[in-house]
Amino acid sequence: MIKLYWSPRSRSFTTLWLMEESGLAYERVLTDISTGAQKAPDYLKINPMGKVPALTDGDAALGEAAAICAYIGDRYPETKLAPAVTDPRRARYLQWLFFSPGCIEPAIIQIYTKIEIPTSTAAWGSATQVFDVLEAALEKGPWILGEEFSAADITIGSGLNFAVRLFKMVPSRPAFDAYLARCMARPAFQRAEKIAAG
């Protein structure tokens, strides 16, 4: 049985949405970060960083939302959440799958802290560049790979949901609004949002 370790109102939303989209049977294991449950020795064996989300699947255990998305998409191809390794779209899928933790999240931190980092030094370039590039990619739509929804949309959609819709840290743009509306219309997104609210 797949077990998803999660906590309400946290980054667990990405993986809740993933699991709801997957259609796979899974058990949600509440890991209440307000009580420090994520620092318990048994939990640290699953995710040494002491963060949520984390996932176990038999003997497999991992943390990091994008990694969990990659794992589920590859381990369970019947979910159709990831292009096959032999599919040419796989390259772009991987790029966008990791764009949220690699670019969106650092850009949000840069905006929040107002830290000036030379674009030649920052792995994400600049916050402006991140959101300009994402806007251009999303204008083509309806999903990041075109017609087919994938786990990359879950990481991108979650990142934008957090940055634009929930915390308004990033100014909205028409392409972001339209994309978020499509994400929010998905029944799995709606179920995950209810679960994540606690």
Automatic annotation (TrEMBL):
Residues 86-198 form the GST C-terminal domain. SUPFAM superfamilies: GST C-terminal domain-like (SSF47616), Thioredoxin-like (SSF52833). Residues 1-80 form the GST N-terminal domain. It comes from the Bacteria. It holds the Pfam family GST_C_2. CDD domains: GST_C_8, GST_N_GTT1_like. InterPro entries: Glutathione-S-Trfase_C-like, Glutathione-S-Trfase_C_sf, Glutathione_S-Trfase, Glutathione_S-Trfase_N, Thioredoxin-like_sf. PANTHER family: GLUTATHIONE S-TRANSFERASE GSTA, GLUTATHIONE S-TRANSFERASE-RELATED. This is Glutathione S-transferase family protein.
